[in-house]
Design goal:
The structure holds two protein chains of two kinds. Chain A is mostly helical. Chain A has helices at about 5-25, 25-30, 35-45, 50-55, 60-70; one strand at about 75. By secondary structure, chain B is an alpha/beta fold. Chain B folds into two domains: about 5-130, 5'-nuclease (Rossmann fold, 3-Layer(aba) Sandwich), CATH 3.40.50.1010; about 135-180, no CATH class. Chain B is built from ten helices and six strands. Chain B is globular. Chain B starts with 5 loop residues before the first strand and ends with a helix. Strand 1 (about 75) of chain A pairs parallel with strand 6 (about 160-165) of chain B, so a sheet runs across the interface.
Chain lengths: ~80, ~180
């Protein structure tokens, strides 16, 4: 099992966020309709696939395919 | 029942894992992997639906119907996770964690919130939570899959669009190399 302190988790979250931000295809993201664009940006910031899929009004799998097309890695 | 015999998978994990060329490793690690009904509702592609349906048919996957006690505990976990200054969890992954606690299943997830919740919430102390990183490493350790570990992890990243945290990956590779 993985065991870390809160500060370590915060640091890991920030590192993961930076990876998502830097690898995302921002031209693709900005070209999407508003709801999809907002969901992709939410995912870049949080890495939360479930909530992002609800924002986009998609199933989790449909949103997961979209995040791959947007070049956003799932960091975990 | 031994924890290693049963696992429960959340959607984020299953969808990623289904894209991997060696995805059937999962069924050599566990007697069966439970899939909550909530998860089944989230899969749509022909590739994933066919894999899940055939695995349910063979018994490698089993449907997990959420009971009121599991849902109630899961809702408690969602609320408690929001008390910490880090990302919380939502009901789908909370159901897996609740089942991990109440049924002694290994929880398999790619959700950071679930990893953090298992770390901070006292009631989840002792629940085994594995990512694909730990699952693949276990497969390599038990020689259920073969090949250069670096290449195996790289193929997983390539197939799924997943990214292992570099430090965690290096620690795991170091451990695996030390064992050989």
């Amino acid at each position: 099992m993985i065991s870390r302190g809160i500060e370590k988790w915060k640091k890991l979250e920030e590192e993961a966020r930076e990876i998502r931000r830097s690898e995302a295809d921002w031209n693709f993201i900005e070209s999407q309709p508003p709801k999809i664009r907002a969901a992709l940006k939410f995912y870049v910031e949080t890495g939360d696939l479930y909530v992002a899929s609800r924002i986009a009004d998609m199933s989790i799998e449909e949103f997961n395919d979209l995040r791959k097309r947007a070049g956003i890695p799932n960091v975990c | 029942m031994s924890a290693e015999e049963f696992a429960i998978a959340d959607t984020c994990f299953l969808i990623d894992w289904a894209s991997w060329r060696q995805r059937d490793l999962l069924f050599r690690l566990f007697k069966t992997v439970f899939v909550p009904e909530l998860v089944i509702r989230e899969i749509k592609s022909e590739r994933t639906v066919e894999w899940v349906a055939s695995s349910l048919s063979s018994g490698s996957l089993s449907l997990f119907t959420e009971t009121p006690d599991i849902i109630s505990f899961a809702r408690d976990l969602v609320e408690r996770s929001k008390l910490f200054p880090v990302r919380g969890i939502d009901l789908p992954e909370a159901i897996c964690l609740a089942a991990g606690r109440m049924r002694n299943y290994v929880v398999i997830t790619e959700n950071r919130g679930a990893l953090m919740a298992a770390d901070f919430i006292e009631e989840l102390s002792g629940v085994k939570v594995w990512r694909s990183l730990e699952l693949i490493a276990e497969g390599l350790r038990r020689k259920l899959i073969k090949g250069d570990p670096r290449k195996v992890f790289a193929e997983y990243e390539m197939d799924t669009g997943h990214r292992f945290p570099r430090k965690d990956l290096e620690v795991m590779l170091h451990e695996l190399e030390g064992e050989n």
